[in-house]
Amino acid sequence: MAAIVSVEVLLANLPPKVKRTDAVQSFECQETPIVRIRDADGAVGTGYSYTIGTGGSSVVRLLDDHLAPMLIGRDADDIEKLWRELFFRVHATTVGALTSIALAAIDTALWDLRARKAALPLHRLAGGAKDGIETYYTEGGWLHLTESQLVDEALRAQEAGFGGTKIKVGRPHVAEDVERLSAVRDAVGPGWDVMTDANQGFTLAEAIRRARCFEGLDVAWFEEPIHADDVDAHRRLSASTTVPIAVGESLYSLSQFKDYLQSGACSIVQVDVGRIGGITPWLKVAHMAEAYNVPVCPHFLMEIHVALCCAVPNSRWLEYIPQLDMVTASGMRMQGGRAIPSDAPGLGIDWDWDKLRAHQVHRTEHH
Fold first, then answer.
1. Both ends of the chain: CA-CA distance in Å?
2. Which residues are catalytic?
3. pLDDT tens per residue, range 219-242
4. Which of 16, 47, 186, 298 is the S-S candidate for 109 at Cβ 3.0 to 4.6 Å?
């Protein structure tokens, strides 16, 4: 046993690399809570999570005041036990985004520490199912972009080797969405995937209407069409269309995914390690989806999801949105349109602490 002797809590604010807009919001800032856990052997594990512009300071207070102090003196290898004890320590604030984001920063640090001490990369420690994962491009599909910009971005992504592109939908009238999607489909041809994402912007009736119009464009999926709380509405939508329905980035517990899968309310799971509470519950969701023959296509955080996608057999796509390259010494490795997980022990993220300090807005250390 090597007891935890210190826990460092950081917050770094990373600006978006491009303007990002969707049907309900804009991506203001990637607030990045970071946790560094050191054990008595001197080994250090680093984990992180994120917000898109609000709540970061609240996550840090939750870590500093309630969660990080509980880790001191504990065995860092008891990951499952620690996750459950931390979860029930703040049970009154679960299930919810702030608690899950805080837990994710700790849990990913514990997995990084375990993998480093085992001298194994995360994708092998957590399963070792694949040596690469196909990627799709999101940065060229934001809602504010013009039709010609969408086409240009899609063609560049296709030429670069990506397997598809995501287009945000939610224009005031369905005809506008169809026109934009049709322009992209005509440009890239039938053998390339086009994903759509509504960011929970529609009612059930409007989602059914738009899905019907999207069917002829052979879209790969219709993501977050309705508010994520409404499982039955997603079930009714799924039953009404041949377009695959994707959910997950706004779900925060294993049980929520269970309800969707049992109800047949989705056909693609987009579980997000930063919002589900870390690697421990992420793997449970992925394996549960496998039992339902449903693919996993995680949301955001490509730098850690590349390893998790390669750990499980039912992963299908990795979303390409680079963000950590402004605070890392090297980025995620790509071969054509495939992402390749790092062979370095741990999460495989090559942090540049000098660069990170330029964006740091909070630091505390617990002993």
1. 18
2. 168, 299
3. 999 999 999 999 999 999 999 999
4. 47
Q: Of all helices (H) and strands (E), which one includes residue 134?
A: strand 133-137
Which positions of the chain have pLDDT values less than 50? none
Distance, in Å, from the CA atom of 155 to the CA atom of 139, rounded to the nearest integer, reads 13
Taking every pair of Cα atoms in the chain, the longest distance, rounded to a whole number of angstroms, is 62
- The answer to whether 175 and 209 are in contact (CB under 8 A) is no
Whole-number Å distance between alpha carbons of 134 and 315: 9
- Structural domain of residue 17, as residue ranges? 3-119+353-366
Residues 296, 358 within the same domain? no
At 71 the three-state DSSP class reads helix
Name every residue whose Cβ is closer than 8 Å to that of residue 289 and which is 6 or more positions away in sequence: 257, 261, 269, 271, 295, 296, 314
> Can you tell me the distance from the alpha carbon of 45 to that of 190, in angstroms, rounded to the nearest whole number?
45
pLDDT over 70 percentage in the chain:
100
Residue 91 counted as domain residue: yes
For the record, the structure tokens of 111 come out as 């997995």
Q: Give the Cα separation of 191 and 183 in Å (integer).
A: 15
Do both 174 and 311 map to the same domain?
yes
Per DSSP bridges, beta strands 193-197 and 222-223 are: parallel
